[in-house]
Design brief:
mainly alpha; Arc Repressor Mutant, subunit A; 2 domains; three-stranded antiparallel sheet; 12 helices
Length: about 260
């Protein structure tokens, strides 16, 4: 097993509420889970078992550094931190498992572009390193790139050349907030016949989530002195896939509908 598979197994395992988790217990549990899920065809023996356990312990220690686990008074016993409990409760899309996070984002948004993925990937790496201002900036850039694609989709979906020209004049070269506002005018217009499932989430996902991400990026990307903590950037990373999916659902819908 590689470290990505090990990390995914650790973060997807339902751990008992017992505060005493040893490195050995975690390693044995992950090997058993790997066999149960068919990742391993059998329990490794001798040198192979020792080598795999060492690798699992290294990944576990990385999660200690990231704050998911903590020493329970004294090593080698560990406990799941309060923050760690939130990570496990978040379910399958956890920023502490970057490969799985990206994989699920690709599945949710098949047409996602390489530039967005580049910045999301950087955001996940800086998050795990504890650089939370940088994380907010990276996710903000990823959200802006998605916004620009959605603006293009609206432009091409407008039903007359004149409306396309006016929309371009209102958006091209303008700041993200201006483009976002003009985009919403068209999407939320009574004259825009959006599909009901999209209409119901435009305000909450496209407006609300983008605004949260944009404000966080602005705070982090300007010399305001504002600090960001792990909880805040963790929340941004959990929100981003919802924004991204709704935006791509709109892009896909607009590609075959005029508004």
């Amino acid at each position: 097993m590689d470290t990505s598979q090990i990390r995914t197994l650790i973060l997807s395992t339902k751990w008992t509420p017992s505060p005493n988790l040893s490195f050995g217990h975690i390693a044995e549990t992950i090997i058993s889970e790997a066999v149960r899920k068919g990742i391993l065809d059998r329990h490794p023996q001798h040198n192979a078992e020792a080598s795999l356990k060492e690798k699992i312990e290294e990944v576990t220690w990385g999660l200690v550094i990231e704050g998911v686990f903590a020493p329970n008074h004294t090593l080698p016993l560990l406990r799941i931190t309060e923050y760690g409990k939130q990570c496990f409760e978040a379910g399958e899309t956890t920023p502490h498992d970057p490969d799985e996070y990206i994989s699920r984002l690709r599945k949710q948004c098949p047409s996602i572009d390489a530039v967005t993925l580049l910045y999301v990937g950087e955001g996940l790496q800086t998050f795990r390193a504890g650089n939370h201002l940088a994380t907010a900036v990276m996710i903000g850039v990823a959200a802006e790139k998605t916004l620009l694609r959605l603006v293009d989709a609206v432009h091409f979906a407008l039903d007359t050349p004149l409306r396309q020209q006016r929309f371009e004049e209102e958006t091209k070269g303008k700041k993200a907030k201006k483009q976002h506002d003009e985009l919403l005018k068209r999407l939320k217009s009574p004259l825009t016949p959006l599909a009901s499932d999209l209409e119901s989430v435009v305000t909450q996902h496209i407006d609300g989530i983008f605004d949260v991400i944009r404000r966080s990026r602005n705070d982090a990307g300007h010399p305001t002195g504002r600090k960001m903590d792990r909880q805040e950037t963790h929340a941004l990373l959990l929100l981003f896939p919802t924004y991204c999916k709704t935006a791509h659902d709109l892009i896909d819908w607009l590609s075959s509908h005029k508004i």
